[in-house]
Amino acid sequence: MSGYRQKKIAMINDLSGYGRCSLTVAIPIISAMKVQCCPIPTSILSNHTGFPVYFFDDYTGKMPAYIEKWKELDLSFDGIVSGFLGSEDQIGIVMDMIRDFGHEDTKIIIDPIMGDHGETYATYTQAMCRRMKALVSMGSIVTPNLTEACILTDRPFRKKGWTREELKEMARDIQAMGPGSVVITGVNQGGYLVNVVAEGEREISFPKTIRVGQERPGTGDVFSSVVAAAAVRGWKLEEGVRLAASFVKQCIRRSEELNIPTANGVCFEEVMDVLIHAVSSRHESEKC
């Protein structure tokens, strides 16, 4: 008699011990959605770099040997997710892993973390941006913010004034690079945050949520973790995006209520029951 086969995601990101971002966000959130999260650390930090001091240990040189043991164990994954990558070498390692572990049914979720607010991160060179485009071409789902979407499509950034037709064209241009589906995240439109969802050849949708509180580190990691877990569970992309956006909003609102310092990210632990209920409700409806 065969046992229960739990869905598994290989999550490639840094491990920051304090500040609620990257793997310390992904592991509990993906787990709450009843998916096993298997981390591959790209670096180890005492806390994220938004704090005035931090310890940092680059893990690039150890990643190939780490992944090789998974190959020897003949492991397989329903999803492979990449977060922040700090060098061309790391991008290449992720591409190799996708070739080695990806199969027809594997969801490859690429969060091309390259910049924000119209600026490329200081650590990102032009060569890294070109390499990221190659990684994006291997994705099933790609989740750039507006800045990153502009970088990927060689468009000039502007903070506001984007029409739906322009956003549609940008999403389709990213799809033309290779990924089946694209989510351009967090586009500011008035008092709303809009996500542009291009799922395969379906009509592009624009689910939105009311903007609350102030921007906090780690919210992108929260969002992509929910989307990834929903995808490997077989949900439609827009359904996962709506849950992710709603959850992020509730995390921010609760963090504001509790006066959590901005650098500490969002206290997602306080509202984790939202995800647990969403997955349980979906599971019950699927049995009916």
From TrEMBL:
Lineage: Bacteria, Bacillati, Bacillota, Clostridia, Lachnospirales
UniProt keywords, alphabetically: ATP-binding, Kinase, Nucleotide-binding, Thiamine biosynthesis, Transferase
Name this polypeptide is given: pyridoxal kinase
Record Pfam families: Phos_pyr_kin
Superkingdom classification of source: Bacteria
GO molecular function: pyridoxal kinase activity
Keyword Nucleotide-binding set for record: yes
InterPro entries hit by this protein: PM/HMP-P_kinase-1, PyrdxlKinase, Ribokinase-like
Species of provenance: Enterocloster hominis
EC numbers, comma separated: 2.7.1.35
KW RNA-binding (keyword) present: no
Domain (Pyridoxamine kinase/Phosphomethylpyrimidine kinase): residue spans on this chain: 74-258
CDD domains on file: pyridoxal_pyridoxamine_kinase
